[in-house]
């Protein structure tokens, strides 16, 4: 496609310059076959590029992804997502060559955040897993780094906390952090705006006494009728008394390949000529000195990996026939690839658009009839799904400050999957049932509404659909030739599908046509009777597609209509199906001790107090209990503890509103008080002074297993 686009550009210019009346002949000669120009081995670099998505964190001890609101704040303050990668910006700076070294990549990271002195602070690279935990990356090449990152962003963890003052006052901080001998600058600027919003500015850069280069520049920034800035500049570099290199240049630019690129100044200590020093201007040796970025509007967008026109030669040979002319599409019709959006961003934007802040709806729930209570609640005439649900469990006195809502949606998704009667198959890999009575009763529609309601308010999704079914529901083509027929819920269909897979010879095919030909034909493959052995894999995929998707098409449509009833949520899922894979399929991994501990924080008493000593005794026993769970020597799981503390069995996609914590209480004499939790505050309270792990395990296990509800133990 790049060759086609380049050929079109060349043809347009050639045709515009032609004065010959024979347009047909000119067009034919313009579109002659093009061949790539030969290159030497030394310059034959790898053409592979990688779309890098960076995110700069502010804290050196960051172990969990920040909440979406915190991420947005970081991006606004110069951290987070770099300016060239903000949503809606198309920039070639988001792409790097896989042939570059890790040293060059580190330089690229520093230049992506020009207001932050990352080269002085230092940083490490990390990726985020399914549980939003950060894992540091270890790689020796760019290819290794890309494989380690996967679909995650590249998270940059500074080796020292980046203070807010440094971010908000970047210019002052850059001057304060400049090493000795570095260039200093003084600037004066004036701006005036006319009725169209045009502005003009002038700036002067002076030379200090250390012999740093001096420059004077005048620039005019104008705005066209569409509000797109255009710029022209003339600059002169003078030589100081210390013998620094000098050069003069005047340049006018209508368009450049990279917006906001920076040029490193010549070091003050350099005394050689500019021509000799150009060869040492390697990108890895230079960092951004705080040069402001200038953005402009291009006449049209270009692919980041476009080949240059010099990379092709016109082949004037007459070996092609006159009838071999091909029709080329226009550049305007080309659809550029859409970058995958983070799931947290999609859900956060959805909530901002549809969920009403400050408005609540009281939802009364009978715990023993949770699914029935939920369906009755959303079926009321006055029900408004945009309002935040305030959950009241009958017979339980807990106020819903977040905990009851998290527990309700978690239990609701279990009920929808197991007791509603519209799903079948193994747990975590289910299919829609073919039930016409349920279809007439609009059960699939109700299930879609319940799932959308949960997702819209930060609750979990079903996380149980078969991955192939989910792809087909999203309008994608699944690789059904490798489908595992053992997961099919009907044993008879399992055996028949296995029989198709075992067909290897002409005799097997003849027997298959005789025994199962009519059944396969009823699945929508009437060509089974004339099929060959080579077509068996495709026939198998058609049979699987018929059984898991086409047969239940009406059920699937009713289910998706139910999800679309709440803010057209299924349309959002369909358009971003890759991002929503963790919501609808079972990609969960069990919590580990390290990931569970990373979720928690500890509320200790001040050091040196008696309470602190007893709290550390309890935490040591707590660590031993966690070892028992990790070694599977107890019925307790990390998910059980997380449910007891927060009401959720995993970290939500949008994160918890604050970090869950462990606090302490003093055990009164003669009273056996069990550990307890506040799911709203997400705090687990443990007794001080527990020195035996078995004692803590017993009372903790009793609290978790015997809990009957809020304020009921």
UniProtKB/TrEMBL annotation:
- Cross-referenced Pfam families, in alphabetical order? HECT
| Alphabetically ordered keywords of this record | Transferase, Ubl conjugation pathway
Q: Does Transferase count among this protein's keywords? A: yes
GO-annotated biological processes: protein polyubiquitination; ubiquitin-dependent protein catabolic process
What SMART domains does this protein's entry cite? HECTc (SM00119)
Q: Where is this region: Disordered?
A: 199-274, 307-326
Instruction: Tell me its EC number(s), please.
Output: 2.3.2.26
Q: Where is the active site?
A: 680
UniProt catalytic activity: S-ubiquitinyl-[E2 ubiquitin-conjugating enzyme]-L-cysteine + [acceptor protein]-L-lysine = [E2 ubiquitin-conjugating enzyme]-L-cysteine + N(6)-ubiquitinyl-[acceptor protein]-L-lysine
Name the domain of life: Eukaryota
Give GO cellular component annotations, separated by semicolons: cytoplasm
Determine if Signal is one of this entry's keywords: no
- In this chain, composition skew of type Low complexity spans 199-264
| Domain (HECT): residue spans on this chain | 390-713
Name of this protein: HECT-type E3 ubiquitin transferase
């Amino acid at each position: 496609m790049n060759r086609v686009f380049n050929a079109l550009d060349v043809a347009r210019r050639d045709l515009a310059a032609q004065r010959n009346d024979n347009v047909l002949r000119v067009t034919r000669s313009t579109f002659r076959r093009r061949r790539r120009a030969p290159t030497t081995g030394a310059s034959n670099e790898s053409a592979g590029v990688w779309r890098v998505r960076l995110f700069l964190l502010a804290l050196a001890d960051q172990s969990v992804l920040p909440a979406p609101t915190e991420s947005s704040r970081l991006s606004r303050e110069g951290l987070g997502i770099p300016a060239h990668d903000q949503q809606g910006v198309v920039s070639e700076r988001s792409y790097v060559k896989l042939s570059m070294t890790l040293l060059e990549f580190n330089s690229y990271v520093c230049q992506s955040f020009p207001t932050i002195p990352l080269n002085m602070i230092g940083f490490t690279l990390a990726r985020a897993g399914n549980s939003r935990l950060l894992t540091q990356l270890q790689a020796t090449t760019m290819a290794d780094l890309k494989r380690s990152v996967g679909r995650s962003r590249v998270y940059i963890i500074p080796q020292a906390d980046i203070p807010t003052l440094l971010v908000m006052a970047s210019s002052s901080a850059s001057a304060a952090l400049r090493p000795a001998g570095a260039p200093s600058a003084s600037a004066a600027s004036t701006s005036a705006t006319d009725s169209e919003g045009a502005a003009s500015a002038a700036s002067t850069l002076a030379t200090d006494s250390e012999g740093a280069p001096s420059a004077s520049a005048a620039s005019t920034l104008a705005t066209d009728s569409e509000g797109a800035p255009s710029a022209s500049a003339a600059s002169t570099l003078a030589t100081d008394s210390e013998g620094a290199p000098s050069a003069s240049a005047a340049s006018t630019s209508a368009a450049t390949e990279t917006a906001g690129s920076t040029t490193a100044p010549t070091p003050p200590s350099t005394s050689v000529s500019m021509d000799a020093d150009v060869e040492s201007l390697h990108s890895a040796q230079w960092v951004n000195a705080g040069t402001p970025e200038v953005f402009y509007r291009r006449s049209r967008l270009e692919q980041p990996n476009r080949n240059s026109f010099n990379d092709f030669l016109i082949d004037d040979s007459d070996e092609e026939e006159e009838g071999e002319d091909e029709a080329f599409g226009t550049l305007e019709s080309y659809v550029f690839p859409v970058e995958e959006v983070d799931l947290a961003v999609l859900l956060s934007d959805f909530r901002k658009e549809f969920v009403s802040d400050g408005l609540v709806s009281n939802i009364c729930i009978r715990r023993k009839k949770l699914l029935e209570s939920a369906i009755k609640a959303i079926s009321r005439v006055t029900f408004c799904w945009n309002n935040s649900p305030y959950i009241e469990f009958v017979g339980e006195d807990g106020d819903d400050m977040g905990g009851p809502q998290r527990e309700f949606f978690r239990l609701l998704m279990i009920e929808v999957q197991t007791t509603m009667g519209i799903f079948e198959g193994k747990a975590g890999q289910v299919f829609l049932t073919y039930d016409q009575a349920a279809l007439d009763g609009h059960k699939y529609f109700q299930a879609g509404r319940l799932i959308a309601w949960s997702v819209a308010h930060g609750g979990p999704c079903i996380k149980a659909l078969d991955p192939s079914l989910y792809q087909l529901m999203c309008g994608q083509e699944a690789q059904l030739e490798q489908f595992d027929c053992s997961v099919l819920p009907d044993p008879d269909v399992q055996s028949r599908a296995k029989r198709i897979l075992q067909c290897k010879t002409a005799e097997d095919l003849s027997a298959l046509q005789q025994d199962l030909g009519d059944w396969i034909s009823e699945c929508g493959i009437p060509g089974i009777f004339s099929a060959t052995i080579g077509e068996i894999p495709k026939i198998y995929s058609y049979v699987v597609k018929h059984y898991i998707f086409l047969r239940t098409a009406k059920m699937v449509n009713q289910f998706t209509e139910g999800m679309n009833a709440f803010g057209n949520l299924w349309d959002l899922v369909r358009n971003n199906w890759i991002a929503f894979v963790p919501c609808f399929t079972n990609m969960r991994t069990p919590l580990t001790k390290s990931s569970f501990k990373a979720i928690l924080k500890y509320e200790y008493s001040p050091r040196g107090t008696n309470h602190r000593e007893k709290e550390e005794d309890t935490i040591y026993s707590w660590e031993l209990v966690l070892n028992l769970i990790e070694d599977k020597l107890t019925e307790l799981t990390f998910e059980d503890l997380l449910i007891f503390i927060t009401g959720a069995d995993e970290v939500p996609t949008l994160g918890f509103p604050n970090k869950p914590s462990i606090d302490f209480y003093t055990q009164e004499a003669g009273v056996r008080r069990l550990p307890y939790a506040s799911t709203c505050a997400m705090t687990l309270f443990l007794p001080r002074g527990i020195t035996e792990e078995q004692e803590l395990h017993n009372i903790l296990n009793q609290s978790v297993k015997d809990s009957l509800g809020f304020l009921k133990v």
